[in-house]
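DATA SHEET
Item: assembly model
Revision: 1
Owner: S.N.
Input lines:
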Amino acid sequence: MAYSEYKMWLQSENAAVPKVDSIIEERILNHWDNIDGSVERGYSGKSLFFKDGNICYDKNRIRDYARYLSSIGINRVCCNNVNVTERSARMIADDLIDDVAALAGIFREFGIRFIIAVDFTSPRLLGGLTTYDPYDEHVIKWWKAAAETVYKHIPDLAGFLVKADSEFRDGPAALGRTQADGANVIANALKKHGGKVYWRCFVYNCVQDWRDTKTDRPKAAYDHFYPLDGSFADNVILQIKHGPSDFQVREPNSPLLGAMEHTSQALEFQVTQEYTGQQVDLYATAVQWQEILDAPVSDSQSMRDLMGNKVKAIVAVANTGLDANWTGHTLAQANLYAFGRMASDPALTAREVLGEWVKLTFGSNPAVYEPVLDMMLRSREVYEMYTSHLGLGWMVNINHHYGPSPEGYEFMKWGTYHRANHEAIGVDRTEAGTGYTAQYHPHLNALYSNIETCPEELLLYFHRLPYSFKLKSGKTVLQHFYDSHFEAVEHVEEFISTWDSLRPHLPECVFSSVADRLLRQLSNAKEWRDVVNTYFYRLTGISDGQGRKIYD
Amino acid sequence: MAYSEYKMWLQSENAAVPKVDSIIEERILNHWDNIDGSVERGYSGKSLFFKDGNICYDKNRIRDYARYLSSIGINRVCCNNVNVTERSARMIADDLIDDVAALAGIFREFGIRFIIAVDFTSPRLLGGLTTYDPYDEHVIKWWKAAAETVYKHIPDLAGFLVKADSEFRDGPAALGRTQADGANVIANALKKHGGKVYWRCFVYNCVQDWRDTKTDRPKAAYDHFYPLDGSFADNVILQIKHGPSDFQVREPNSPLLGAMEHTSQALEFQVTQEYTGQQVDLYATAVQWQEILDAPVSDSQSMRDLMGNKVKAIVAVANTGLDANWTGHTLAQANLYAFGRMASDPALTAREVLGEWVKLTFGSNPAVYEPVLDMMLRSREVYEMYTSHLGLGWMVNINHHYGPSPEGYEFMKWGTYHRANHEAIGVDRTEAGTGYTAQYHPHLNALYSNIETCPEELLLYFHRLPYSFKLKSGKTVLQHFYDSHFEAVEHVEEFISTWDSLRPHLPECVFSSVADRLLRQLSNAKEWRDVVNTYFYRLTGISDGQGRKIYD
């Protein structure tokens, strides 16, 4: 809800913090906030927690925030970025721990336990040791001592979050040790204090040669972690992104989720809209999450069935910052709300949780409630129509990830290639290709491998197809691209009319701030339409079947 | 020459500073050094002049540098970046002027006059005025007062350098004034002190919509400045890049150079290798400069004929920094040397000046001299073979400009498009197209407009051609692309063998540092070969005529 309204709500009798009785024990919010005050992939202003290398915040606002998070079911937070800097690594050291403990204390008032992101090389970085080898006895001792210090200050700390061997961050692999060796040395130090290690599985070759067609990035997490099942300490939780790529608009679920019998797992979502519109374009993440939870993981189970079972925790990257409305786009508040609610009860539908949010925020007047809810429910499909197609993904501008660049990542080192030529596009990930599908349960392997049974929205994630391939609609892939892009712009124009019609019912500041973002979304949708259509038109020489304008 | 050798040379009797009697009065070196110590487009370490927001240097080293510049004919330097920051704008203000004057004093010892890059909005930025409108009397007064202050400290200051209305920097156009209005208000203030304004002509629309095919960036400088001929004060010099794009490997000469009858002009080169290998890849800029000077500007004159005539000054962007060898790549020292020598005497050939440098640096032993000179003379052609083709340019990675990205700039706002599709590539810049060629002398307009007479190396600068177009060699454009890229890698391999064979004759540190860069160049040349070949193969579906490996 809007901050002003939330303040009012806090003063009302509904404001008692609800006691959430969830099947998922840990419902975690990760912030990618840097200690200099910036926020990685943040689109809502500066950090709520940090400034200029120190912990620095408005106590009242953090209290409001903690209370709000608690009210929607969040019970763990990590405030510092998983990409730990030399300075933020010191959050577990003497110079910062008092301030960290004070911040943790605010969240504690609302039943939320703190997590700290740490640097795997800390024994060397902070401790002055010559190594961070998890087999080294000084390293083992160092982690134990660090845990003692931290738990003296924060006795209920939930644990440490670690991104290691990932995107140029050092980890155990650099020393010839396994991911389990790495996670366990920290887990063993935390165990007596009741702490856990949240170990991210975003490990892949980020210096791939595009000429190498054997290496297939989506295979990486499973290849690295599945063989280690049984080697992780009990208090290690593997934190696995929902899809095998990286929070794209459309991906299959990660085959690693649920695959390991003897290892605790956490499902990771992204509330912040890195690839999904950056809080300029409307995108209700709940719709995607419901699809993810609905999707099968075997012949008899869906992802939802794993929740509270093999998947004991759920995590998301936050979308909040110092903006007055918390989330940049006012309607993006619904994404944070929905995460808390769906983490607490994965059986809730997107319609239910978004409906709750719209009512809490704008009231129950159906003249407002229905059109706003309808826009939000459609927003994910519309965004997908003008950006990604049939599971393709990655056609974004490099680095910042907003706006179209069809070949932006095509020759880079990140392992994200569509390999489009003048007649076909996509990567064959079946056993005839990179073999990625073999990582799934046999039922899913068969489902995805067969072009007839592969869900159409994922066709280009699993298969290489000629543009002339006929979809179930009877359209070719190419005509589907064209149609989606033309129609998406029309949908955004409808959003704008809808929103305009609500003006009399809305506070002017809320109306105009959303109206402004919708106009920016329209410009973005047109840019995507024209760039992507032109790209495929130049490549194929085939015009739009309906004769609409495609630039040369 | 290498720093150590130069030090020796300084102690020798040859070290008397030569008195250069040139037809070109001003031979200027621009540094793009930021006051924080970084260097824009710098590939040789941090700034020689600045650190952490202040003027900060090793006096002995600057004295060596000034002496060296003077010895090769340079008689003007500007040390701060034309992209002036809020802090470096203060170089003309009380807080920094003493330090600036001290630095200028070192150059003065060697007959080099100082230039300061200033911010056009200084009256507002530094003076606290509400405007920087050149018609405003307070603004006029402010510039006069600023000039008084500066000339009190640096009585022989050559003048101010200004980049205005360019790449998001404010200028007179923002206030509805002309470029002449902008330049003149400063020039009038400098006149009584004998100072000049060096006014850059790099003015173009840097927020172009790629869908707009009417706007053609190469037309911009001429369109903006030519109509103003006669309106500039006598002490304004228009600083014009050699080509109409931006220091690409291959461009035609700017039609603005020599076009204005009543305006002093400066020809601007780039010694620093922004688009030409970044001091990793070997690239002897002198070869390109000779071509530029050789090129016709009318039916009876070449660019060389303009030198000392309509073009009274010559400028280049420096390639130096705090690296021990000054220029990152040891052989890139030759580019600075060559600039000074050719600025002093534009009739010198690349062979002559590079030959001088090789002898001064490595001695006259023909076993060293000849192969090194040969490598350097070939280096420009080889680099062009694996990067740009037939004048195409711009297929570089965005922002940093190293390495290939065929569509990197294709949908961006910088006005740099090749518009390649499955059958053709390039932009028609004749009068049937964007009309750019009409900016040239009629003789050149005719020459460039006709595919038969257009120099082949510029074909794709002026024309859109099908890949099947036959070049004079009988090869198609596409096969020419393929061949160039395959052969370029072989040439780089030859450079490596040549260099390896020189090992016994060279100091080990010089040998190994160049050898290391040649290996990096080889990897870069292979990356270019494979990315560009694959790009065109994917687009056209046409294989290499010789069956060599092109990745799918």
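QC remark: Chain B touches chain A through 25 residues (CB under 8 Å).
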